[in-house]
Amino acid sequence: MIEVKDLVKSYGELRAVDGITFSVESGEFFGILGPNGAGKTTTLEMIEGLREPDAGEVRLLGAPPWPRDIDLCRRIGVQLQSSAFFEKLTAREQLRTFADLYGSPHSRVDELLDEVGLADKGDESTDDLSGGQKQRLSIACTLVNDPEVVFLDEPTAALDPQARRNLWDLLGRLNDRGRTVVLTTHSMEEAEALCDRVAIVDRGKLLAIDSPTNLVRELDAPVRIALVRGSVTEDRARSVVGVESVQVDGDSIVLVTRDPAPVLTELARLDALEGLQVRGGTLEDVFLNLTGREYRA
Amino acid sequence: MSTIRSLANAMIRGFLRDRQALFFTILFPLIFLFLFGGIFSDPSQSKSDLTLIGKVPLVDELPPQARSVFDDLFKVHRTRDRADAIRKVRDGTVDGALEQRGNTVILHFSRADPVEAASVQGTLSSFVDQANVHASGTKPVFSFAAKQVEDEALSGIQYVAPGLLGWAIATSATFGSALTLVTWRQSELLRRLRLAPVSGTAIVLARVIVSILIALAQTVLFVVLSVVVFDLKLTGNWYLSVPLIIAGTLTFMAIGLFCGAVAKTSEGASGLANLLVLPMAFLSGSFIPLDVAPAWIRTVSLVFPLRYLNDGMLDVMVRGKGPGAIVVPMLVMIGFAAVVGGLSGRFIRWDKA
Ligand SMILES: Nc1ncnc2c1ncn2[C@@H]1O[C@H](COP(=O)(O)OP(=O)(O)OP(=O)(O)O)[C@@H](O)[C@H]1O
Ligand SMILES: [Mg+2]
User: Fold this and answer.
1) Minimal-distance CA residue to ligand 1 atom 30
2) Smallest CA–CA separation between A132 and chain B, in Å?
3) Chain B CA closest to residue A47
4) Quick one: pLDDT at residue B145?
5) Does the global pTM surpass 0.80?
């Protein structure tokens, strides 16, 4: 479906993308995850055919996307990092215009409005839509030609947590019918929630690529069990079998273990479960482990 | 084809819903028309109101040429109500009332406005004299032709309207293409369209069609208002202004393309467009008639495409010249459009950075 080999792109001295290789299978929900400036957009745009790679090779649906290939354009759907609309048109008019450009029937327009949950906003001017609604409309615009591959560049950036979660439902449905989706995000949570596989990039390099579960599992990160401070003494906590270390952190006491089941049983027996919070490894830990730096989006 | 139509459609809707764009391209030039139309139209040349009571063969049977001169001088009202007509003269609503009994033509006038009254009297009596000469069947020995010292009969609105229209068209064509290019690039719509099966040519053609439609709409509004409010008189070949307007639109779209290619923001593009078009308008006779401008301005103006647009429009709209008059302006403008448009097209960028 998509094959990327040794991709390089420099802006002056800066190597924005520095030798990235991966491939995306048909029907996959693929995530490119990384902090700001990691090179996600640059990578995505080279795959879409918007930028010419300095070196390396891209094949999209079996063909090179650069130079521009109109036939390829018809088969893909792209949402750029900023939602690109025609000024002053209503939501329905935007979709109609895009449908015309792709030669898709207008009947598709109302279906799409419905699909992205904007059925009652069709006649509203695009300028008056909320951030989340704009993103939905923008996603609808990428779907007018019923594309085989959809590219989404940070579709949930700049949304509040609630709107972001609402959008995840819609995004999660995008590859229901075997469509391939490639999405960039700097949210670890989002990648875990949506993606079949994730490529973690930082400073133009690919750090790791696997399913979120595998990435976390391979990390073999310890589980952190947090309790209200005082529910168990530090010494007692340290003596529980399986606990590797104990940290006191503000109002809570944290027990670090790789074998949480017996530890939790013992704590329950001690009746010391007040304020219990259990946190396993996350992609954030994966990032910390790979780069030695805290993940900050 | 449907791509172009749908892009043009989107542009037109965007334009019609953009109050600011509507104001600056449609209303603003009209405000200038009213301002300049008011300043330059000489009040002493305004027509006198004359009421004809019943049938007045002297006027009704004037030969066509004399009739048109008569209509230039008088705004004619008609009535059968003699008393009412005379009352209106008395209260000054009209400048005179004319009736004819047999071979006597009677003018009712009031002394309230002696200048106007004298001018009406004088003018009418000359028509009567002419009619007498005509009736006697002899050729007149003397004839009289008045000549104004300024541009022949091209005073007031006759000069102002075509020039201002040229400026209005230049402005809206320049801004239209410059702002479409810059805002579409800023919003990344251009890049988005690059990933759709749409050619650059289709986008340009759609914008050309929209700009030409806007220019023609401006022309209709402008001319209709000038005719109705300011008595602009179009000459027979006014329709030749249509090709001129289309060529002018292309020329200034090319200038807009240049502004949009050079500027990064829409503010920058409008600033640059104003910087180019406004001085050009001053120097090309859009605001100040070139006949009264210093010689150096007349020379300098020859490098500006607006000069050719204005000249062409004056020639065919009010000077009564024929198709020959638009040849040079058309060639200059199309050549300018091709060169500037071609050069600008070379360094247009799709993306922001
Ligand atoms: N057109 C450009 N010219 C110069 N430098 C650029 C250009 N585009 C991107 N860069 C630089 O390349 C690097 C990678 O940029 P890119 O946009 O790919 O990052 P990103 O991962 O998409 O970041 P974000 O999460 O902020 O969108 C950044 O340091 C950026 O400043
Ligand atoms: Mg980005």
Assistant:
1) A37
2) 17
3) B195
4) 52
5) no
